[in-house]
């Protein structure tokens, strides 16, 4: 008489339970992954704005000519005009910062650097904030009259 041969491997029930547990874990991780991607998109958009402003200032000084940065523009770049566009779910807001620290809305969509690297079309420091509506975070940069960029801590929209 033959004995019972032990079986190796998983039963169908064990496999289904394992897949169900993994699916639940994946569903819990999906929102945080989405937020991580949005956060990285916001960071990249901020870096792109910083690079565009820095490039405009450098081109103005090196070329001894006025160079403008058009914000929220999809036009092609030229030697005297650079363009920058917000990424999806991001919005740009510009504000003047008065000497007493109060902020007022700024309607310009163009920043012009003169041959000395000074921002010619603003009269005081300007706050540029990029807000991502999905994750409710915003990156804040202060552009001084002299064309210097100052970074502030991340805030909520």
TrEMBL record:
Any single biological process term in GO: protein secretion by the type II secretion system
Keywords: Cell inner membrane, Cell membrane, Membrane, Methylation, Transmembrane, Transmembrane helix
Topology in the lipid bilayer: Single-pass membrane protein
Location in the cell: Cell inner membrane
TM stretches of this protein: 12-30
Predominant location: membrane
Name of the protein described by the UniProt record: Type II secretion system protein H
Organism, scientific name: Acinetobacter baumannii
Taxonomic lineage from the root: Bacteria, Pseudomonadati, Pseudomonadota, Gammaproteobacteria, Moraxellales
């Amino acid at each position: 008489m033959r004995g019972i041969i032990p079986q190796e491997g998983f039963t169908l029930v064990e496999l289904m339970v394992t897949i169900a547990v993994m699916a639940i874990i994946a569903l819990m991780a999906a929102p945080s992954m989405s937020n991580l991607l949005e956060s990285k998109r916001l960071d990249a958009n901020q870096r792109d704005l910083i690079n565009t402003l820095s490039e405009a200032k450098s081109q103005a000084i090196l070329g001894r000519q006025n160079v403008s940065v058009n914000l929220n523009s999809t036009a092609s770049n030229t030697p005297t005009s650079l363009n920058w566009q917000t990424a999806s779910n991001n919005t740009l807001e510009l504000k003047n910062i008065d000497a007493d620290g109060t902020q007022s809305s700024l309607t310009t969509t163009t920043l012009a650097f003169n041959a000395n690297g000074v921002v010619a079309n603003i009269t005081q420091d300007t706050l540029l904030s990029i807000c991502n509506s999905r994750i409710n975070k915003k990156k804040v940069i202060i552009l001084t009259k002299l064309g210097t960029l100052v970074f502030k801590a991340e805030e909520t929209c």
